[in-house]
Amino acid sequence: MTDDDVKAMAAAAEAHAREHHWNVTIAIVDDGGHLLHLHRLEGAGASTAEMATGKARTAVLGRRETKVYEDTIKQGRTAFLSAPLTAMLEGGVPIFVGADIVGAVGVSGVKSEQDAQIARAGIAALGIENV
């Protein structure tokens, strides 16, 4: 991902959040889980910065949306709680270019499905089919 890609995703995610009046934190990480962008919108809780970053890292290192982990745990597989991932709640979405993972977006601050919606809006700014 280029700097311009990160800026475009951040702007699109923030615009989506503001459009819905959602006070969130948006984190973007590279393919190694290293933080490239973190913005806590006015009114977002202090803990959302850690959670958004954790969701992004979990999504990129696990190569799947964090919702997968949340659903697995909800279905009774509580052993996943001991996995070395930090945020297994919906709101972390990996970024794929073809079969290659290039990063992830994590969002925290509203309902989990809304966090994921914001993350996907950011990724959509790249104009790629993210699978």
Can you walk through the features of this model?
This protein is of the alpha+beta class. The chain has a single domain, classed as Haem-degrading domain (Beta-Lactamase). Helices cover 42% and strands 21% of the residues. Strands 2-1-4-3 form a four-stranded antiparallel beta sheet. Helix 1 (3-19) crosses helix 4. It comes from Caballeronia insecticola. InterPro entries: GlcG_carb_metab_protein, PduO/GlcC-like, PduO/GlcC-like_sf. This is GlcG protein.
What's the topology here?
Elements: H1 3-19, E1 25-30, E2 35-40, H2 47-62, H3 66-74, E3 92-97, E4 100-108, H4 112-124
Antiparallel strand pairs: 1-2, 1-4, 3-4
Helix pairs in contact: 1-4
Strand order of the largest sheet: 2-1-4-3
CATH homology superfamily name: Haem-degrading domain
Output the CATH topology.
Beta-Lactamase
CATH level-two architecture: 2-Layer Sandwich
Quaternary structure: single chain
Provide the CATH top-level class.
Alpha Beta
Span of the ends, CA to CA: 16 Å
Low-confidence segments: none
Beta-strand residue fraction:
15-25%
Secondary-structure element string? HEEHHEEH
| Rg computed from alpha carbons, rounded to a whole number of angstroms | 13 Å
Organism: Caballeronia insecticola
Protein name: GlcG protein
InterPro entries: GlcG_carb_metab_protein, PduO/GlcC-like, PduO/GlcC-like_sf
